[in-house]
Amino acid sequence: MYTNTRFGELLKVLPKNTFKRCVEQHRSDKHNKGFDSWGQLISLMYAQLSGCRSLRELEVSYNSHSAHHYHLGCGPIKRSTLSDANRQRDAGVFESFCQQLMGRAHRRVRNEIKDLLYLLDSTPICLRGRGYEWTQARSMSRIPGLKIHLLYPPTSSCPVTLGSRHRPRTILSMDAM
After folding, report:
1. What pLDDT, on the 0 to 100 scale, is given for residue 172?
2. Is 97 exposed, middle or buried (0-12, 13-18, 19+ CB in 10 A)?
3. How far apart are CA 62 and CA 56, in angstroms?
4. Are 42 and 73 in contact (CB under 8 A)?
5. Residues 100 and 133 grouped into a single domain
6. Tens digits of residue pLDDT in 121-175
7. What is residue 152's predicted lDDT score, i.e. its pLDDT?
8. How many domains does the chain have?
9. Cβ distance 151 to 162 under 8 Å?
């Protein structure tokens, strides 16, 4: 006997017809070869909620629950297919769907979410040459050096830091650049 999972219960509140209209509007499934926008949404939501840190981890974890794929409206995923979809599929379909869902939310919830949303920029700084030999010996990544992570509010080009009580403070003004 099949019992619905918590993830399945969470997905029940998503209006699938609204998502289909967003897909048709953006034509995001035009060159779909078996992995549609709904499957991508489901797999990315699963990755977020389960705390997967890589596509490989997502593939193994998600595919281990194969009995539930049919009821979620999608099938097993492959790492390369998901990677291609993330790179090639327009994110506008997910943005439109999110805006549709936000339009249904209470006004107070919409205002609170605006305060919580930040964009994360992860920029590598390559350090090579004389004096930076330590980066070659200790590097576990493709780019030897440092990686800087900056938070941006969506309406600004100035990075911020979250201070006390998660209130943003500007850490760099445009004049200082």
Report:
1. 45
2. buried
3. 10
4. yes
5. no
6. 878 888 878 887 777 766 566 677 777 878 887 777 788 776 555 555 555 433 3
7. 80
8. 2
9. yes
